[in-house]
Amino acid sequence: MFKQILLPLDFEHQELYPQVVASALKLCHPQGQIHLLYVNSARVHHAAAPLYSSELIGNLDKVVEQQLGDFMQAHIPAQHQGRIKIKHGVVYDTILAQARKHDIELIVMPASRPGAKTYLLGSNASKVVRHADCAVLVIR
């Protein structure tokens, strides 16, 4: 059983969220907490960076924070509700940094089936699996 579980969610693989939450809850210690993380990588991709004003990014953060809060209330029992974090940066680096910073014991994350692009470059999930200091469960 894990006391500190991190769910990095990106709203891209929502069809996998029921499995992600169910797996996290099955592995959660009775006094454990489940934390949610969203990583906004909009400014990392330099070609699009000039299109995103600070105001636009701030508004997006507010919307995402509301969505994560609603998700937490709807799917995570109150006794297991942890932090909600919105960070900006490279997705896999940010997930790993947050896991280290908050002594996360397990990361449960959704991932799509690899295509030619991710096979060659590596997906966020595969990079998290390779470099995490804790257990990682990838849901497909």
Descriptors for this entry?
single chain, 140 residues, alpha/beta, Rossmann fold, 5-stranded parallel sheet, 5 strands, Rossmann-like_a/b/a_fold, Universal_stress_UspA, UspA
Secondary structure layout plus pairing:
Layout: E1 2-8, H1 17-27, E2 28-40, H2 54-75, E3 81-88, H3 91-101, E4 106-110, H4 116-121, H5 124-131, E5 135-139
Parallel strand pairs: 1-2, 1-4, 2-3, 4-5
Helix pairs in contact: 3-5
Protein name: Universal stress protein
Pfam family, one: Usp
Family: Belongs to the universal stress protein A family.
Structural overview:
Residues 1-140 form the UspA domain. This is Universal stress protein. Pfam families: Usp (PF00582). Belongs to the universal stress protein A family. It comes from Oceanisphaera psychrotolerans. The protein has 140 residues and is of the alpha/beta class. The chain has one domain: Rossmann fold (3-Layer(aba) Sandwich), CATH 3.40.50. The protein has five helices and five strands; from the N terminus they run βαβαβαβααβ. The protein has helices at residues 17-27, 54-75, 91-101, 116-121, 124-131; strands at residues 2-8, 28-40, 81-88, 106-110, 135-139. A five-stranded parallel beta sheet has the order 3-2-1-4-5, sandwiched between helices. β1 (2-8), α1 and β2 (28-40) form a beta-alpha-beta unit. The longest helix has 22 residues, at 54-75. It is globular and about 45 Å long.
Summarize the structure.
Belongs to the universal stress protein A family. By secondary structure, this protein is an alpha/beta fold.
